Amino acid sequence: MFSKDRWKEILEVLSSNMLRTVATAFGVGWGIFILIILLAAGKGLENGIRQDFNGVATNTMFMWTETTTMAYQGLPEGRDFNFKLGDVELIRRNVPELRIISPRNSLRRSEGDNVIRGIESGQYRIFGDYPEIIEQNPIYVAHGRFFNYNDIEKKRKVVVIGDGIRQDLYDEDEEVLGTYLKISGINFMVVGTYKEKTSNGGGENSEREIFMPFTTFSLAFNQSDNVGWMAITAKDGSSISELSESIIQTVKQSRKVHPDDKRAIGFFDLYEQFNRVESLFGALRFIAYFVGILVLISGIIGVSNIMLIVIKERTKEIGIRRALGENPWSIKLQILMESIFLTIISGMVGIIFGALFIYGINTLLDSVGPVDMFLNPSVSIGVVLIALVILVVSGLLAGFIPANKAIKVRPIEALRTE
């Protein structure tokens, strides 16, 4: 199998008509190239979307109040209502599978600037939260600290600001910690700055929000024990999608909302959306393999057809070798090796060009900066190994029919062939 003469003969056969060999090899190389590019593009899209989920507790739902559409217990339909802080403990008791329940409040943006520092001002969204919110948001403390439960209990007027606000209201080298911001006429001390784990450095809202203790927010802005909405995360091993109905029914009972009122409480299931995205990734991989393999099959068919032509051209040679007593399996092995060799070489060229193309795309992305929903297109070593297996199997299939045809040639008939 590894004899020098056999490999010399293979090279002579394939190089005897170089144009035909190159044209045939192009089909296989193109198929592998397309397969790699499609998989890399899918991976780039997957990386980009996953970056948007980076640092986010995906097993989370967000819940808020709307307007009732059904009368219940003497209360009319069309009623506006709020969650209360007591609902948090009620949910925690009734649904023990939950890990984090974060009640939240916020100030809507007004027409004018709501944050002032010296002669600088800006319009930003203000949140009242509990310390656990940092586990549910894609943010991290870049400088200083996040507020804690001592701040919650003592209702300290402290805030954590986004790095975008620091750039808006402070000089480049100016110290931020310990300074004061006037928010809706009330002074608050800055104890930390945050950055977003998924920020691409753009967007009007990028890192331009302010977080303060929930109790401080309630006291400063006269919210009493009202809760605007909740971010709720399930424990590992539990699905928030399966728990959402129990959570909603618990607060409906607490707020005297009809159990069948579907519009009174709004919610967004992040876990369900994340699973849909995961399904999309699977579909993209399937499409990439399906299309790439179809293109590859067309190339393999071309290799098989060319090998049949080669066998016809070498009919007399095969007859002489059979007449001289060469084993039919030896002839069959020769054809199979020629087919596999041609397929692997052309496929490897396709892999090399695919790798160079991906390298060029990544270099371009590095030079122009991040692109939304597309990041670092690549293929893993596992994909390359799968491609190599496909090439070997394809080479065997491409040479199988011609090889069987070759050993069926009767020596006397082959010798008579002109």
From TrEMBL:
<feature type="domain" description="ABC3 transporter permease C-terminal">
    <location>
        <begin position="290"/>
        <end position="408"/>
    </location>
</feature>
<dbReference type="Pfam" id="PF12704">
    <property type="entry name" value="MacB_PCD"/>
</dbReference>
<keyword id="KW-0472">Membrane</keyword>
<dbReference type="Pfam" id="PF02687">
    <property type="entry name" value="FtsX"/>
</dbReference>
<protein>
    <submittedName>
        <fullName>ABC transporter permease</fullName>
    </submittedName>
</protein>
<dbReference type="GO" id="GO:0005886">
    <property type="term" value="C:plasma membrane"/>
</dbReference>
<feature type="transmembrane region" description="Helical">
    <location>
        <begin position="381"/>
        <end position="401"/>
    </location>
</feature>
<keyword id="KW-0812">Transmembrane</keyword>
<feature type="transmembrane region" description="Helical">
    <location>
        <begin position="286"/>
        <end position="311"/>
    </location>
</feature>
<comment type="similarity">
    <text>Belongs to the ABC-4 integral membrane protein family.</text>
</comment>
<dbReference type="InterPro" id="IPR050250">
    <property type="entry name" value="Macrolide_Exporter_MacB"/>
</dbReference>
<dbReference type="InterPro" id="IPR025857">
    <property type="entry name" value="MacB_PCD"/>
</dbReference>
<feature type="transmembrane region" description="Helical">
    <location>
        <begin position="21"/>
        <end position="41"/>
    </location>
</feature>
<feature type="domain" description="MacB-like periplasmic core">
    <location>
        <begin position="21"/>
        <end position="248"/>
    </location>
</feature>
<dbReference type="GO" id="GO:0022857">
    <property type="term" value="F:transmembrane transporter activity"/>
</dbReference>
<feature type="transmembrane region" description="Helical">
    <location>
        <begin position="340"/>
        <end position="361"/>
    </location>
</feature>
<keyword id="KW-1003">Cell membrane</keyword>
<keyword id="KW-1133">Transmembrane helix</keyword>
<dbReference type="InterPro" id="IPR003838">
    <property type="entry name" value="ABC3_permease_C"/>
</dbReference>
